[in-house]
TrEMBL record:
Belongs to the gluconokinase GntK/GntV family. The lineage of its organism: Eukaryota, Metazoa, Chordata, Craniata, Vertebrata. GO terms for biological process: carbohydrate metabolic process. The keyword rRNA processing does not apply. Its EC number is 2.7.1.12. It comes from Lanius ludovicianus. This is Gluconokinase. It comes from the Eukaryota. It catalyses: D-gluconate + ATP = 6-phospho-D-gluconate + ADP + H(+). InterPro entries: P-loop_NTPase, Therm_gnt_kin. It is an enzyme of class 2 (transferase). Keywords: ATP-binding, Kinase, Nucleotide-binding, Transferase. The gene is Idnk.
Length: 158
């Protein structure tokens, strides 16, 4: 697509990486500043009319709201008021698959701070996207080319 790509893991503060490396799941308090920083990156790209892809484990609905609206999403479930920064238009891609497939992929990953042992905590935290969120669900049981094609098709459809 020629879009900028960001891996959210690159933006975790050292404290978060240390906790995960020690096998300690992150709390909402750990994640919110990280998600706000990611929102700021997306807002900057949007302001410069640059499309971007962010790989991010936005596990909860609240986390996805923070990516869309920033810190204001935490304080209020109310829509933006006139004159405020409008919410970003984001298509969330929920990569869905059984824990054993994802665990197998994590086992092959080298040099990453999150150990495979934290996968269960992520499944326990997961709130799959639902209406009215703007999302698609793509099965991880498909081949990589099929996954990419499905995501690209959804993006191009708008």
């Amino acid at each position: 697509l020629g879009w900028k790509f960001y891996d959210a893991d690159d933006y975790h503060p050292p404290e978060n990486k240390k906790k995960m490396a020690e096998g300690i799941p992150l709390s909402d308090e750990d994640r919110i500043p990280w998600l706000c920083a990611l929102h700021d990156i997306l807002r900057r790209e949007d302001a410069s009319r640059q499309d971007a892809i962010l790989a991010c484990s936005a596990l909860k609905k609240m986390y996805r709201r923070v990516l869309i609206s920033g810190a204001s999403a935490i304080e209020s479930d109310q829509p933006e008021q006139p004159g405020e920064n409008p919410a970003l238009k984001i298509l969330f891609v929920h990569l869905d698959g059984p824990m054993d497939i994802i665990a197998g992929r994590l086992e092959k990953r080298r040099g990453h701070f999150m150990p495979p042992e934290l996968l269960k905590s992520q499944f326990d935290t997961l709130e799959p996207p639902s209406a009215p969120e703007n999302f698609i669900t793509v099965s991880l049981e498909k081949s990589l080319p099929e996954i990419v094609l499905e995501i690209e098709s959804a993006i191009l459809r708008g």
